[in-house]
Write a structure and sequence with these properties.
2 domains; binds S-adenosylmethionine; 7-stranded mixed sheet; single chain; Rossmann fold; about 300 residues; 12 helices
Length: about 300
């Protein structure tokens, strides 16, 4: 029963919420059960709607009322906004990092299942890395086929990707990995993982593109890295900081792999065309030669020669 309405009104809302959630699940990246629960919760707490449902318990007629239409709009917007949150599971990430810090303080290393479980929790909390997890081996195999012997990697706008280091197989050759990101929580997570894996192989630095690459020095001759990564970064920067893109001319690496997402983060639709155009536009604008293309089930990219 609704808090304010009638049993018939509740049934009408439940029935409408079911249909509504099924439509949301078709359009957005949410399963219909979660969409149903969230929608019904909102509607049951909407006094005006519950009263209207009590007066008009026929679902089809209720659906045509202004109050229902407004409630449906609100539920859609709320779903959209909650899905849009870039770090969908911020709490999971914070918890994972706290656990990892405790383990690192105890001197636990990366072979300890508690450390890998905390790491997996953190990595799974960020949509960009989470998307890669189902085919992580494929992602790395492809990456290391494309770029043989990347002894040093500079990961620009790294997010949580460095927590997947050290790599297996061909990737074992990577002995220096520097992640740059403006997000302090990401840097803390990577630095903590670096303590767990030990040594000096992995480091994260809080850095913003506006600073440029002056102080970013790699272990190869001329202070370069063998490979720079800009995974799912360029399309974001093209929208948000277009005028700063020329700073990439000074990226301290001869090879730069840039990628974009193939599917939208929220809506169930392909964004391949838009993302590819953004990557190609970036390469053209900066005069970088495209050496190879990169494609996985969730990502597409270009390997560029920067000079
Ligand atoms: C879409 S995420 C991709 C994360 C990671 N590269 C991956 O693919 O898993 C973009 C990342 O770039 C970072 N970022 C965005 N703009 C930035 C800027 N101007 N300077 C530094 N980092 C930035 C964000 O904090 C975020 O972690």
């Amino acid at each position: 029963m609704t808090e304010h309405g009638s049993p018939q009104g509740s049934q009408a809302l439940e029935s409408l919420a079911k249909d509504f959630a099924a439509k949301l699940a078709e359009r957005y990246r949410i399963d219909s059960e979660s969409a149903y629960a969230a929608t019904l919760e909102m509607w049951m707490n909407n006094r005006k709607l519950c009263d209207q449902a009590a007066r008009e318990p026929d679902p089809q007629r209720l659906k045509r009322t202004r109050i229902y239409k407004q409630a449906a709009e609100k539920a859609k917007a709320s779903t959209y906004n909650s899905l849009r949150k870039y770090k969908q599971q911020a709490e999971r990430m914070t918890d994972g990092v706290s656990t990892l810090i405790e383990l690192a303080d105890q001197g636990v290393d990366s072979t300890d299942p508690r450390a890998t479980a905390a790491r997996d929790q953190i990595v799974g909390s960020h949509v960009s890395t989470r998307e890669r997890l189902p085919d992580l081996d494929g992602f790395h195999t492809h990456l290391f086929e494309l770029i043989p012997e990347p002894t040093s990697i500079l990961d620009i706008g790294c997010g949580l990707q460095p927590l997947l280091y050290p790599f297996h197989d061909a990737g074992q050759i990577t002995s220096t990995y520097l992640g740059l990101d403006r997000d302090a929580s990401v840097v803390e997570a990577v630095d903590t993982w670096a303590r767990v894996i030990g040594g000096e192989r992995l480091e994260a630095r809080q850095w913003s593109l506006s600073e440029g690459f002056d102080g970013v020095v790699g272990p190869e001759p001329n202070g370069e890295f063998k490979l720079a990564l800009g995974l799912k970064l360029i399309p974001v920067l093209s929208r948000q900081e277009r005028k700063r893109l020329p700073l990439f001319r000074d990226v301290p690496a001869q090879r730069l792999l840039i990628t974009g997402a193939r599917h939208a983060m929220v809506k169930r639709r392909s964004i391949e065309r838009r993302e590819r155009a953004s990557l190609v536009g970036f390469a053209d604008e900066l005069g970088f030669e495209v050496l190879e293309t990169f494609e996985t089930p969730t990502e597409l990219g270009l390997l560029l020669e920067t000079r």
